[in-house]
Amino acid sequence: MLIRTLSLCDLPGVMEVQRSAYPDGLIEPAASFARKLEIWPEGARGAFDGDVLAGYLFCHPWPTGTVAPFGSKRIVIPTAKADLFIHDLAVRPERRGVGIASLLVREAVAMAAAHRLSRCALVAVLDARPFWERLSFRPVCEIGYGAGERGWYMVMDLPASPPLVRNGSTDPWTAAPYADDVRSQNLPYSD
């Protein structure tokens, strides 16, 4: 299994995985994914089995305590305090249960830690809440999401880290040297 950053060329595979994983009310347009690639490319990760995209993750910084809009083509990276918002995680049904989702979530947690963000947030849809709870996310409130769907806004607090200073800057979006530290920890991930 190869985990790598996605590109615009991967969007047909993303759309195929998304259609296999979600009902019509939770299908986002390709332009929404293209926008996420444009604003924060490192947050677009794919798990590949050979040339086949088995699963994907899209995440990006988003204002703390708020939900990124579903299907938006106009999102921008916040300049204020932010969480790492896991916007979408999907795995082909025939590839579930082998750890792909957990691997991709580990990537997101590593990104959050590398950028010194204090937590990850997401909306758990369909029957995914127990999966996210096993990964240490806790439910905050139930919300409407997508076209008539319900979901749970959930968060995971990350361990506090000292502020990162690199070349005199504390800008969290430009420094990511600590991802390997987080990936090497024994965090409770399993599908």
Describe the structure.
The chain has 191 residues and is α+β, with helices and mostly antiparallel strands. The protein has one domain (2-183): Gcn5-related N-acetyltransferase (GNAT) (Aminopeptidase, 3-Layer(aba) Sandwich), CATH 3.40.630. It has five helices and seven strands. The protein has a seven-stranded mixed β-sheet with strand order 1-2-3-4-5-7-6. The chain is globular and about 35 Å long. Mean pLDDT is 85; it is low at 169-191.
How big is the Rg?
16 Å
Number of helix segments? 5
> What's the total count of β strands?
7
Output the strand order for the largest sheet: 1-2-3-4-5-7-6
Structural class: alpha+beta
Mean pLDDT: 85
CATH fold topology: Aminopeptidase
Percent of sequence in beta strands? 25-35%
CATH class: Alpha Beta
What multimeric state do the chains show?
A: single chain
Terminal Cα separation, in Å? 15 Å
Low-confidence stretches: 169-191
Overall number of domains: 1
H/E element order: EHHEEEHEHEEH
Helical residue percent band? 10-25%
CATH architecture call: 3-Layer(aba) Sandwich
Q: Please summarize the sheet with the most strands.
A: 7 strands, mixed
Describe the global form: globular
Task: Supply the CATH superfamily name.
Answer: Gcn5-related N-acetyltransferase (GNAT)
